[in-house]
């Protein structure tokens, strides 16, 4: 279970602070074991600091008390949201306060014109809430699917389309703050503002004095104004002193981009921006980056939402990837491209904007005619080029090196010259594989390269490069050393170079005013150490082929069902790398053994191996496959697995017998006594006995093999009832539930299909149950056996083959080479619905798409089938993988409970049932939602009555969808 904390290994000040924290926080939220301190303390940057304490905070009051406890012993505190920051803003060697997993409150105001968010809300989730209103957040960082509101605000994140007009600074309306001394402030509440002024007059007066000092210095004021004509996140947001008079309003805007160094953002209200429904994109090719930059300058006044520049190295890095446009490989060696997007409220306006854009860019010749497309599939393919750049470098890097992504901005008049100068510097310092791309419309460029920090020679090379880049950008072109990624640790020593001594001195006074003891995120934004950006560099040692490509960006984390329980995929990889490093060096064997022991529960036992991490990973890493490999290295249970594989019919019969016995006991004892007995047995066994729950299925009835018509021309399909379907029937309390194999057989018959079953059905299995436990040889043997039977049954693949359980279909789709296994909902949508007449059920239903179907890209197919059968369909965004993971819902029920914690509150009012396509998932979903979940095939069968061509899909098109689903 959860590892013990190393309390006695803590330095005395931290040990005493931990005791203070336990006075108001539960022990499980004050973490000091070595594995989780390392794993939870890692962010997306190339810096590594290991905190002494990791504290999971859930309220502003807890933050205030934490700051008070830390201040009593002068211990620094760093706030952490998603940890996707690239500049080292979210790492600490002291106390790390983690908001992820909490602070998820969100409220829509004024019909979507404003939104109130807590710092733990993921940016994409906020946009999903706003989508029904035709609105979105202004900031649109590339990491919006993983980064959280706290980080978006604290780093003044922007992105490809928001520029400087719609970034966090321009769209923030109010905040709730907690200052370093615990003082609260709600900038939207007049009473709170007055109370703050009375309690902290030093802050109010100090801010007013800085404001007046700047106003009295026209040269300084003009310097500040000029610095924010382009993107700039270097240092503090000094423009707040020019843009606002009231000290509280100044403080509010100083918090944007403050990177956790001035106060804690407990809540933020943003003004939202319209989400234009009509879009068109074009990819324009130019002879070189200078010409592309010249064209960008012409587009500055055109009706465009985004202009992304990509140099030849960028295009080369993705030209061989699947789905890329043809012709990239044939471009000249110095070519560059602009990816241009325009957006409008209606098609007519879009057409006018396309014409205006083409006229604006016409004076700069292109290598080929420019053509805009408003087809979503086509323009998404163009944007896939841009999205793939950073991952492409990460995937191709040499093991042991890290990916560095730096971020600068030039005044538009210097964009062309600055881009060429940056190219030359990269080549001069040996970064020939580096790429340059970015938000050209804002003069904002990213340059990405790989760097080895393992040797002093390589560190010196990086240091020399950074010195020259900073001098070139800040001195020669008066640009921004950080356009949108925040100052962090890697530019903190260069803030004075960019801003000059006077403005830098003002920033230091501001920091001292709000954090006089320097305890909030020290070393970030401001640093007196000229080499601080070269210290505490993160090692990335070789660990395993599956995970060595990981760049630790954290994009995977929102998809992981164990993220609020134990570790995420990124954190598992961090831990495995450290274990591998210790094993390779022979250093500290006692520490390595401790990490391995703690990893057993944190990393292995609570990994659902669902593979959804790979769907969000920029380089496609499936950490679940690594977990399966680790399990395969253990020798325990291999004999039993071999026996079960060879006697699978008996194994299935035994499982049915166990379910019958459990159901009989349930019938005699009742739910309450049965639950108490189950909990007692599990406790007595030390957690080794699986935990029964009231949704435990009864044994399934035998699979009926209906008489086949056999007439010439009759439709036929091979139907494989999975071992789960052959074993598990509905739960005792589900009066409407039916076995999924009965529903599938009925549906096939209604649609006029004869079901063909493979020979030796009872002994067949796809091998998934073996694979998930690490018995890979047995898994593959069962899959080969099943494939042979399905090849024969389908007459060599001539007949369609349908499974009734999504995970089994996915596994066979992945491993079989001679057949194509169809997911049950995919088969229903493609083959059955056009032949059925459907009568919808009233009221809302819930839908859950299993991980396997998500990976097959079937989410919209599930929605279409459900919408054909129900008037309203809710697909809760808050829930991803259910965490049941085969049998882990019984062996590690806390994983399922944690993954589904948001489910009950996410269901629409009046929802009486849910549907999925995985019997084990349905057990956990029923348990934690309070409504029965059944097979979606059963709902279709209930709604279907006889054969009638082309009826159901037409009715599905008019279905009402839940907002944000």
Automatic annotation (TrEMBL):
Domain 4Fe-4S ferredoxin-type: 539-570
Keywords: FAD, Flavoprotein, Iron, Iron-sulfur, Metal-binding, Oxidoreductase, Transit peptide
InterPro entries hit by this protein: 4Fe4S_Fe-S-bd, 4Fe4S_Fe_S_CS, FAD-bd_oxidored_4_C, FAD-bd_PCMH, FAD-bd_PCMH-like_sf, FAD-bd_PCMH_sub1, FAD-bd_PCMH_sub2, FAD-linked_Oxase-like_C
Cofactor needs: FAD
Domain of life: Bacteria
Entry EC number(s): 1.1.2.4
A Pfam family it matches: Fer4_8
Cited SUPFAM superfamilies: alpha-helical ferredoxin (SSF46548), FAD-binding/transporter-associated domain-like (SSF56176), FAD-linked oxidases, C-terminal domain (SSF55103)
Residue ranges of domain FAD-binding PCMH-type in the record: 47-275
Family: Belongs to the FAD-binding oxidoreductase/transferase type 4 family.
Protein known as: D-lactate dehydrogenase (cytochrome)
Species of the source: Anaeromyxobacter oryzae
């Amino acid at each position: 279970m959860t590892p013990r904390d190393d309390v006695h290994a803590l330095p005395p000040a931290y040990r005493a602070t931990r005791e203070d924290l336990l006075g108001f926080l539960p022990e499980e939220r004050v973490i000091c074991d070595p594995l989780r301190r390392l794993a939870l303390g890692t962010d997306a940057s190339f810096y590594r600091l290991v905190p002494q304490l990791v504290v999971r905070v859930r309220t502003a009051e807890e933050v205030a008390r934490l700051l008070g406890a830390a201040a009593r012993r002068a211990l620094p505190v760093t706030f952490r949201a998603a940890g996707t920051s690239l500049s080292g803003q979210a790492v600490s060697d002291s106390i790390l306060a983690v908001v992820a997993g909490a602070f998820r409150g969100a409220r829509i105001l004024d019909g979507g014109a404003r939104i109130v968010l807590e710092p733990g809300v993921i940016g994409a989730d906020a946009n999903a809430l706003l989508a029904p209103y035709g609105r979105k957040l202004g900031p649109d960082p590339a990491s919006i699917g993983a980064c959280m509101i706290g980080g978006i605000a604290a780093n003044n994140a922007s992105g490809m389309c928001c520029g400087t007009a719609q970034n966090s600074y321009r769209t923030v309306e109010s905040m709730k703050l907690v200052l370093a001394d615990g003082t609260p402030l709600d900038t939207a509440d007049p009473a709170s503002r007055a109370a703050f002024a009375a309690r902290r007059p030093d802050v109010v007066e100090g801010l007013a004095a800085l404001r007046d000092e700047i106003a009295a210095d026209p040269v300084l004021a003009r310097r500040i104004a000029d610095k924010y004509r382009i993107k700039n996140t270097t240092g503090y947001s000094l423009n707040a002193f020019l843009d606002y008079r009231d000290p509280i309003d100044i403080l509010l805007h100083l918090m944007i981009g403050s990177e956790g160094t001035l106060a804690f953002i407990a809540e933020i209200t943003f003004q939202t921006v319209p989400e234009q429904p009509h879009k068109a994109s074009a990819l324009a090719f130019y002879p070189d980056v200078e010409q592309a930059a010249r064209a960008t300058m012409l587009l500055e006044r055109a009706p465009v939402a985004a202009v992304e520049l990509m140099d030849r190295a960028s295009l080369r890095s993705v030209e061989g990837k699947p789905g890329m446009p043809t012709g990239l490989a044939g471009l000249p060696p110095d070519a560059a491209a602009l990816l241009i997007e325009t957006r409008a409220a209606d098609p007519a306006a879009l057409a006018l904007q396309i014409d205006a854009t083409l006229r604006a860019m016409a004076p700069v010749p292109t290598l080929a005619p420019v053509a805009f497309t408003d087809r979503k599939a086509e323009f998404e393919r163009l944007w896939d080029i841009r999205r793939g750049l950073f991952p492409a470098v990460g995937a191709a890097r040499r093991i042991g090196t890290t990916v560095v992504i730096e971020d600068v901005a030039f005044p538009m008049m210097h964009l062309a010259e600055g881009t060429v100068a940056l190219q030359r510097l990269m080549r001069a310092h040996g970064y020939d594989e580096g790429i340059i791309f970015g938000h050209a419309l804002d003069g904002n460029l990213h340059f990405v390269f790989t760097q080895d920090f393992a040797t002093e020679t390589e560190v010196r090379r990086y240091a020399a490069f950074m010195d020259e880049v900073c001098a070139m950008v800040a001195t020669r072109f008066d640009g921004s050393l950080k356009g949108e990624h925040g100052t962090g640790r890697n530019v903190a020593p260069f803030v004075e170079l960019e801003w000059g001594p006077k403005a830098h001195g003002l920033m230091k006074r501001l920091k001292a005013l709000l954090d006089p003891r320097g305890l909030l995120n020290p070393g970030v934004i401001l640093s007196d150490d000229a080499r601080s950006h070269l210290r505490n560099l993160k090692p990335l040692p070789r660990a395993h082929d599956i995970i060595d490509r990981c760049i630790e960006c954290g994009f995977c984390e929102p998809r992981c069902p164990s993220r609020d329980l134990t570790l995420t995929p990124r954190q598992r990889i961090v831990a495995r790398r450290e274990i591998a490093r210790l094993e390779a060096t022979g250093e500290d064997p006692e520490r390595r053994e401790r990490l391995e022991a703690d990893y057993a529960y944190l990393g292995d036992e609570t990994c659902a191996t669902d593979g959804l991490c790979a769907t969000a990973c920029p380089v496609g890493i499936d950490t679940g496959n690594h977990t399966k490999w680790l399990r395969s290295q253990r020798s325990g249970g291999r004999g039993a697995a071999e026996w079960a594989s060879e006697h699978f019919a008996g194994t299935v019969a035994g499982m049915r017998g166990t379910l019958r016995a459990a159901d009989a006991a349930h019938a005699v004892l009742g739910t309450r006594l049965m639950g108490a007995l189950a909990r007692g047995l599990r406790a007595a066994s030390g957690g080794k006995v699986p935990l029964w729950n009231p949704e435990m299925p009864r044994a399934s009835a035998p699979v009926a093999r209906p008489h086949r018509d056999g007439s010439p021309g009759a439709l036929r399909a091979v139907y494989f009832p999975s071992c789960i379907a052959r074993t598990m029937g509905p739960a005792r309390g589900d009066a409407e539930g039916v076995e999924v194999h009965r529903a599938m057989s009925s549906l096939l018959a209604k649609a006029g299909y004869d079901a063909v079953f493979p020979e030796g059905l009872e002994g067949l299995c796809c091998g998934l149950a073996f694979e998930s436990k690490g018995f890979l040889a047995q898994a593959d043997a069962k899959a080969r056996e099943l494939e042979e039977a399905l090849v024969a049954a389908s007459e060599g693949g001539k007949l369609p083959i349908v499974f009734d359980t999504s995970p089994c279909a996915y596994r066979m789709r992945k491993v079989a080479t001679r057949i194509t296994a169809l997911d049950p909902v995919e088969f229903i949508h493609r083959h059955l619905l056009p032949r059925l007449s459907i009568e919808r059920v009233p009221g809302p239903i819930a839908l859950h798409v299993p991980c396997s179907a998500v990976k097959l890209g079937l989410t919209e197919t599930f929605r279409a089938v459900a919408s054909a059968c129900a008037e309203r369909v809710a697909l809760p965004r808050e829930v991803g993988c259910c965490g049941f993971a085969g049998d882990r819902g019984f062996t590690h029920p806390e994983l399922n409970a944690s993954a589904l914690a948001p489910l009950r509150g996410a269901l629409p009012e009046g929802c009486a049932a849910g549907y999925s396509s995985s019997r084990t998932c349905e057990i956990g979903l029923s348990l934690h939602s309070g409504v029965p979940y059944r097979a979606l095939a059963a709902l279709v069968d209930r709604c279907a009555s006889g054969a009638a061509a082309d009826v159901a899909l037409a009715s599905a098109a008019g279905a009402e969808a839940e907002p944000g689903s």
